[in-house]
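To the wet lab folks,

You asked to see what we're planning to order before we commit. Fair enough. Below is the target structure as C-alpha cells, and below that is the sequence we designed to fit it. If anything looks off to you, flag it before the synthesis order goes out.
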C-alpha cells in the first residue's frame, strides 16, 4: 500500500493561500526572469555597437581613400597647369578606383558603402611674395552613401533611423607635378 504524501488537512482553503504565499516568496528562477528581461537590451546594445563601429570604419576608409586620391592627383598633374591651362577631369576614373579599392585591388569599403559621385578639381591660388604667381591646388571630393544593415533592428524598440546616410569627404593638396 502506497502512502499519499498529502495530509488530509491540505485541502483546506487557508492552506491554499499559505501555499500561494510560500510560492511568491520563493526565489527559484528569479535569475532566469531577470536575464529574459535584460536580454533584448543587451542584444540591442550589441547591435548598436557593431553598427557604430561599422559606420566609423566606413567613414575612416573613405577619408583614407580620398586622401590617397588627392595625393595621387597632386603628383600626377603638371606643376605648371595654372600657367599652361588644363583640366584634371580626365583623371576622374583613376581617382575613383583609388578611392574605392586597396592597393592590392580589393574592396576598401564594407558592403553598403558606395561612392555616388567623385569630383576632382583644380584651383589656382594667387600668392604674394612667393616664387610663383599662382600655386595649383588639387582637391578631390567624394559623395558617399552608407546604408546601415542593422537599422531594422532599431525599429523593434520604436526608433526609426534613416537607413542611409549621405556624406561628402573632401581633401586638397598642393600640386607638385611630375
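Sequence we intend to order:
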Amino acid at each position: 500500500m502506497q502512502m499519499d504524501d498529502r495530509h488530509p488537512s491540505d485541502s483546506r482553503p487557508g492552506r491554499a493561500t499559505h501555499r500561494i504565499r510560500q510560492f511568491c516568496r520563493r526565489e527559484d528562477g528569479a535569475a532566469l526572469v531577470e536575464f529574459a528581461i535584460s536580454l533584448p537590451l543587451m542584444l540591442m546594445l550589441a547591435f548598436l555597437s557593431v553598427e557604430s563601429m561599422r559606420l566609423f570604419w566606413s567613414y575612416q576608409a573613405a577619408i583614407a581613400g580620398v586622401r590617397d586620391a588627392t595625393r595621387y592627383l597632386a603628383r600626377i598633374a603638371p606643376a605648371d597647369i595654372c600657367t599652361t591651362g588644363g583640366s584634371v577631369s580626365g583623371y576622374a576614373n583613376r581617382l575613383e578606383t583609388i578611392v574605392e579599392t586597396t592597393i592590392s585591388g580589393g574592396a576598401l569599403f564594407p558592403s553598403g558603402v558606395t561612392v555616388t559621385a567623385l569630383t576632382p578639381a583644380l584651383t589656382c591660388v594667387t600668392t604674394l611674395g612667393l616664387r610663383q604667381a599662382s600655386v595649383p591646388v588639387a582637391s578631390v571630393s567624394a559623395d558617399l552613401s552608407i546604408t546601415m544593415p542593422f537599422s531594422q533592428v532599431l525599429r523593434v524598440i520604436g526608433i526609426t533611423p534613416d537607413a542611409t546616410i549621405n556624406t561628402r569627404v573632401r581633401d586638397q593638396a598642393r600640386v607638385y607635378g611630375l
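Structural context that might help your review: The longest strand covers residues 113-126. The mean pLDDT is 79.

Thanks,
Computational group
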